[in-house]
Fold Serine/threonine-protein phosphatase.
Amino acid sequence: MIRFKGGAPRTGRPGAGSRGPNASWRPDHCPLLRRALACGLPPTVLGALGTGLALHVGRSLLREVRRNRTIARTAQRMLRPPPRVDGLAVAAVRMSAGRGARIGGDLYEVAATEYGVRVVIGDVRGHGPAAAPTVDAVLAGFREAVHDEPDLAGVLRRLERAMDRHLRERAHAERLAARAGHAFRTAEEFVTVLLLEILPDGETRALNCGHPWPHLLSGPRAEPLARTDPLPPLGPFPLPADLPVVVCAPLLPGDTLVLHTDGAEDARDPAGRFFPLPEVLASAAREAAPTPQAVLQTVLTALFHHTGGPPEDDVALLVLRNERPSPRIPSEAGGAARSGTTDLSPANPLRHPA
């Protein structure tokens, strides 16, 4: 807060460019005022301008304080309590770039199945509510296939068929709309998809269609889960006949996996610099036993400060931490080892609907 103290204006010490404590102040003492008077601007107008400038600065500072408080409250509100899925702690957040919108073009879901914990994260072309129908189509395909298909390749084929049906329906609707003069844009629709399968021993398998690879936080390090080239996104081109599943680094007890959409990597600050997501995750990994909530808090706080406000693209973050008990060594296994508590049955997957 700016405080103004009442009293007579200070005129400086005697002999230091002033005429003593009782000397009167004259306009020629101020260069700015001399220029204003030379331009024919009365001192009263200049005084009003100075008052207005001071009020503007005060209001700008107040807006900055309120913006920082809003960012902090938003980050806290968006953090969800971490549920547990078959021994994995899960926390997630999704932000839409649409003004006032709560849905957007990013999607994620986690499900416990008899084949392991299966995860999907994706990013539909475009953002905001306009991308929501495609999000619904992909999530519906995942929910139908995740418990039926014994391998990830079968799940991805089902997602491709769901996307094809959605595009055909969109094309039919847009052909009808084209008669009224609307543009035909179904051919431009696509979605990036990453499928993960985490087995009870932590072995992790993946199929990636154009999506950023997750980061594995193990000990003090944060490294990409894999570095292989992804397949093309779903929509523009058919999947190849052979779908080799990528065997990734294992998610061992105590390790954390951070999945994200490209809205996090591509976020820029006012100078045009990209958000340094790997460096932020490395900083989070160096914390003692980072919980999924703590990782989200670290990333969101850094992201909001980097962009100076909400990002311009949809952003989704999904954090999984393996909290299953470590396997006992034979010398300590005096009897049957207690199995880890299954917090969510396969029939009731953790869902984050669009």
Observations:
- Confidence is low (pLDDT under 50) at residues 1-21, 75-79, 330-354.
- The helical segments are 31-38, 43-78, 132-145, 152-178, 262-265, 277-285, 292-307.
- The CA atoms of residues 106 and 123 lie 5 Å apart.
- The first strand starts at residue 84 and ends at 85.
